[in-house]
Amino acid sequence: MTSAETALADRKLVEDAAAGDHAAFDTLVRRHTPMMYRVALRITASPPEAEDVVQEAWLSAWRSLPSFRQESRVSTWLYRVVTNGALAQLRRRPPTVPLHEAAGQVTGTTPEHRVVDAEQVDAVLRAIARLEVSQRVPLVLRELEGLSYEEVADILEVGVPALRSRLRRARVALLGQLRERP
Q1: Which residue has the higher pLDDT, 162 or 90?
Q2: Which of 83, 95, 120, 167 has the least CB density, counted as fewest CB within 10 Å?
Q3: Which CA distances in Å does 107 have to 104, 112, 120?
């Protein structure tokens, strides 16, 4: 299914779910939960908190279905809901803790290369988790989730120039943290 077809299918699912079709909502949940969990995990840096954020985000989405005007893509709306939930979770707790889950994308061909690759990925994820929230969130959405500048700006409700500025500061801070690494 192409991106445009998925967007149309999502719009139909939202309309049906808003009309009370629980199966349509279940389909949305199955389709978008992995993305929402990735975002929540990368923002909160805690698997249990990320699971809570996703559950709360789906509850919020369910309650908001009748008022969703479909001015943006459903996925963009869900990114916004989960991002706002993750940020609210961060405000309710002390500063971030190290990320417990390293990405499973290891590219080395020998066991030694895979260990080094995994350590590098872990170091980058830990450095991202230490960034200020205002830097971490746009970096996660743009670089790790692959959203366009326009989509991230829409989710964060800022202009593209402001987003580019935040991303530049985030990249500089991330590089600084990685250089400090022993």
Answers
A1: 162
A2: 95
A3: 9, 11, 11
Q: What does the block give as tokens for 18?
A: 């808003």
- In this prediction, residue 182 carries a pLDDT of 57
- Residue 92 inside a domain? The answer is yes
When pLDDT is averaged across residues 137-164 and rounded to a whole number, the result is: 91
Alpha-carbon torsion (12, 13, 16, 18), positive or negative? negative
Fill in the amino acid letter for 45.
A
Which H or E element spans position 88? helix 74-91
**Token reading at 124:** 């980058």
CATH value at residue 81: 1.10.1740.10
Calpha distance 38→6 (Å, rounded): 19
Rounded mean pLDDT of 147-167?
Answer: 92
Structural domain boundaries enclosing 48: 1-97
